[in-house]
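Bumping with the actual sequence this time:
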Amino acid sequence: MALDDLDAQIAAADAAQAQAEQTCKNEQQIAADVQNNLTSAANEKAVSDRDAAQQRLVALQNAQRAAVAAAQRAKRSKRRAARFGPGTEDPRRRLRTAHLPALTEARVSRVATRERNTSMNTTHNTSKKRLASAVGIAAAAVATPAALLAGAGTAQADAIPDVNGSPQVEVLYASNPFGLNASIVDGTNPGGVTERCHYHSNGVGTTPSDPFDADVFPNGPTPASLFIPGIQTGGTWTVTVSCDHAAPVTFQEIY
């Protein structure tokens, strides 16, 4: 396109813009006059004139914005033609367009790499957890028989726990290398209900020890465990277990 034609387009766009501005001013004045003449909301004619004037004003404002945009496009075309020659596209735009496929491919590659790394980390962490769980289970399987068989003159120092108490509240004992494991079961505790059970033991006769006290919180009839530290000497103990939902039970245990 020749520069003279671009100048003509710019001049026409400027003239259209000026005319649109003047028309907008006239319509604004008309709208203001109509608004001033509006004396009551019941005056339907005045309200209709006001609405029509506002609609014309909006349409003219849109036309004005379109004229401004056309003038700006024409000016940009003139500058581009003066710099790169008539009918020539901006080489910077061609450069950006040429690099677009490569940039898109690189972006897709980065996203794929990030997702692959996330998947590998998740798989690795899951494998570590499974390995740790397997090691823990194996260690427990090895340690449990030794714990049950340790001790001498104890509450059933073999693999079968000693059970004592009452038909409602039972205490299951099993030997431990560092003391005694005890599990309290309250058969009267409703399922899904957590209660407090207090375990108290005191040495009888020549059994040398301070009283032992501990609280456990069984849920329903599920056993709750506690650990009684100390070397098992075959002494006699008086044990009292008091639970929230059962009568206290007292018995003697040897360990």
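The tokens above came from a reply further down the thread. The longest helix spans residues 91-149.
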